[in-house]
Amino acid sequence: MLKKLNETIDFLKSRIKETPEIGIILGTGLGGLIHEIDVQVAIPYRDIPNFPVSTVDGHTGQLIFGTMSGKKIVAMQGRFHFYEGYSMKELTFPVYVMKFLGIQLIILSNASGGLNPDFEVGDVMVIEDHLNLMRDNPLIGKNEDSIGTRFPDMSKAYDKCLINQAFQIAAQEGIRLRKGIYAAVTGPTYETPAEYRYIRIIGADAVGMSTVPEVIAARHAGLKCFAVSIISDLGVPGKIIEISHRHVIDAASLAEPIMTRVIKKMLGQI
Predict the structure, then answer these.
(1) What does the pLDDT read at residue 96?
(2) How many helical (H) and strand (E) elements, i.e. helices and strands, does the chain have?
(3) Residue 173: enclosing H or E segment and its boundaries?
């Protein structure tokens, strides 16, 4: 992996002029945040050595370098998923690339199904913890000691200071944020009513198909993590409806400006 990382880093450094401070991964329907970035360089994934290529509608598939709220940013406009057929190591490879480029903090977003009966479609949930139900882990296999320890601690996977900061901003801006536990499943099917009930019983407030592998890799690499999940549908008894990927994209896009507002303010205060 180190050989691939070095190849990718050498390529990217030949294309950019400044070292990014913060990485951002944008999920389904959440690419609007890109419009708030003063873009300096945009590189399609297909042009980057060793990079996977996003195959999902709603994921543009390019690496953006620029500034936002005075911070140097590298942003993934579209992520990779286990259900696309990528291995855990392949889909988390960009996290290590961003680490080697120089970032110290990674901000992640996704769209998810709400399980908490108090949630509504369009709510923005700050992730305070997660459940890995994907039956795999990106750290299985040989460990690269130069990147991180064999057994990373996950007791503080999501930075509490950043979570508190987000809620302070929300209070100042009159924005309603939720807070909860995110469960990651493989997909690509949406959950059955029985699966929704099960995942709620074991402690989750929302369920989706991403984010957790990237957070595991980020913590392995010593990065701080902050993540938000937009509730795009409900897995609550009596509120479950038939949904499609287009439904998720549209619902996430409507709530995306709220997420963008909070993240933009956060970056200005970090």
Answers:
(1) 97
(2) 6, 9
(3) helix 160-173
Phi, psi for 233 (deg, rounded to 5): -160, 170
Q: Give the residue from 157, 8, 228 showing the smallest Cα distance to 96.
A: 8
**Contact between residue 225 and residue 106 where contact means Cβ atoms under 8 Å apart:** yes
**For 169, which DSSP code?**
H
The 3-state DSSP composition of the chain as helix, strand, coil percent (nearest 5) reads 35, 25, 40
Q: The pTM is what?
A: 0.94
Tokens of 182: 């995110």
pLDDT at 168: 96
**How many other C-beta atoms are found inside a 10 Å radius of the C-beta of residue 9?**
18
Mean pLDDT by 10 residues, the chain (270 residues): 93 94 85 86 95 68 94 93 94 96 96 95 96 97 94 97 97 95 96 97 97 98 96 91 81 84 92
* Domains assigned to the chain: 2-269 (3.40.50.1580)
Which residue in this structure is represented by tokens 């903090």? 105
- Residues 165 and 269: their CA atoms lie apart, in Å, by 9
